[in-house]
Design a protein that fits this description.
- It is a single chain.
- By secondary structure, this protein is of the alpha/beta class.
- The chain folds into two domains: 152 residues, ATPase, nucleotide binding domain (Nucleotidyltransferase, domain 5); 164 residues, Nucleotidyltransferase, domain 5 (2-Layer Sandwich).
- It has ten helices and ten strands.
- The longest helix has 30 residues.
- The model has no long low-confidence stretch (mean pLDDT 97).
- Bound molecules: 5'-O-[(R)-(carboxyoxy)(hydroxy)phosphoryl]adenosine (KG4) and zinc ion.
- The site of zinc ion has 6 residues, from helix 4.
């Protein structure tokens, strides 16, 4: 079975075709980074307009590369959560193409896509597993029992971890998107020069809080000489605090659940320091670590096509109406 996947929830336009026999057969991602960089963050209206410009030509190219639309048996599109205007572009195009081509369609939860992305790798995890979902809008620890079987074990009480990276990067004078820029700056810094807290690790539970850390960065920056070296040291200290906080909670969750596989997913999962630290944690805990390749880590349609195939294969269908949701709880998919 071949499924077309469409992703437009934020600032990446992406289209892919997944084949249940051979895997991803065509995949394109267009990032709007340069469009939003001048504003220091995503401008929703500009994002929607750019998705409109890019999506149909990309669908044409990807479908041609995959061997034409006659080879497709379904369409999957991200229906939420995300920017409502951006989502509506993918939903309207995906649902309309399915109607015009006489194919079944299915609406996919963006975070479910991230959660299942490691299944596209040659050595995938097997259900059940523990997942750390870290993106621009989410910080979740999830017990994944199977498709749609998601127990939220931990959540953030305020900022998502990607958001904390982006805001900290902005404070340090780095360009949007902040996460990768901050990681690069941190490479030349001394993480031990300034002290940063490990929020909420001194009490039981698996929830997170990152807004205090961001404030701590601002205070440290004001007290420093704000030289290039001081900025690099602050970036390194901040990143280490985030990574260690996430690692402490992952270790705790592995012990509490008895699960032996840990998946990292979402854009912040691209962070090398986080991957290295979590590898050390699973080695010590006798568990295994899984993460998608970089292309499937940040926003992409490969994960949407794959999740779409799983849902279509078990008979799910969406009606011919459009339905996009800016907010949509992962736990409600059960
Ligand atoms: O999953 P994603 O592409 O989009 C959302 O669904 O939010 O995640 C984007 C987030 C941004 O906050 C970005 O700064 C962060 O992931 N990010 C990183 C890195 N690459 C992307 N954060 C830290 N280190 C990175 N290398
Ligand atoms: Zn995402």
């Amino acid at each position: 079975m071949r499924v077309l996947g469409i992703e437009t929830s934020c600032d990446e336009t992406s289209v892919a075709v997944y084949d249940s026999e051979t895997g991803i057969v065509a995949h394109e991602i267009y990032s709007q980074q340069t469009l939003h960089a001048a504003y220091g963050g995503v401008v929703p209206e500009l994002a929607s307009r750019d998705h409109i410009r890019k999506l149909l030509p990309m669908v044409r190219g990807v479908v041609r590369e995959a061997g034409g639309r006659e080879s497709l048996q379904g369409v999957a599109y991200t229906a939420g959560p995300g920017l409502i205007g951006a989502l509506l572009v993918g939903v309207a195009v995906g649902r309309s193409l399915a109607w015009a081509w006489g194919l079944p369609a299915v609406a996919i939860h963006h975070m479910e896509g991230h959660l299942l992305a490691p299944m596209l790798e040659p050595v995938p995890p097997a259900f059940p597993f523990l997942a750390l979902l870290v993106s621009g809008g989410h910080t979740l620890l999830v017990r994944v029992g199977g498709l749609g079987d998601y127990d939220i074990l931990g959540d953030t009480l305020d900022d998502a971890v990607g958001e904390a990276f982006d805001k900290t990067a902005k404070a340090l004078g780095l360009p949007y998107p902040g996460g990768p820029a901050l990681e690069a700056l941190a490479r030349g810094g001394d993480p031990a020069r300034f002290t940063f807290p490990r929020p909420m690790t001194d009490r039981p539970g698996l929830d997170f809080s990152f807004s205090g850390l961001k404030t701590h960065v601002l205070q440290t920056l004001c007290r420093s000489d704000a030289s290039p070296q001081a900025r690099a040291d602050i970036a390194a200290g901040f990143q280490q605090a985030v990574v260690e906080t996430l690692a402490i909670k992952c270790r705790r969750a592995l012990r509490e659940t008895g699960l032996r596989q840990l998946v990292i997913a979402g854009g912040v999962g691209a962070n090398q320091a986080l991957r290295e630290k979590l590898q050390a944690v699973v080695d010590e805990e006798g568990a295994a670590l899984f993460y998608p390749r970089l292309e499937y880590c940040t926003d992409n349609a490969a994960m949407i096509a794959y999740a779409g195939w799983l849902r279509l294969a078990r008979g799910e269908r969406c009606p011919a109406s459009f339905n996009a949701r800016a907010r949509w709880s992962l736990a409600s998919l059960r």
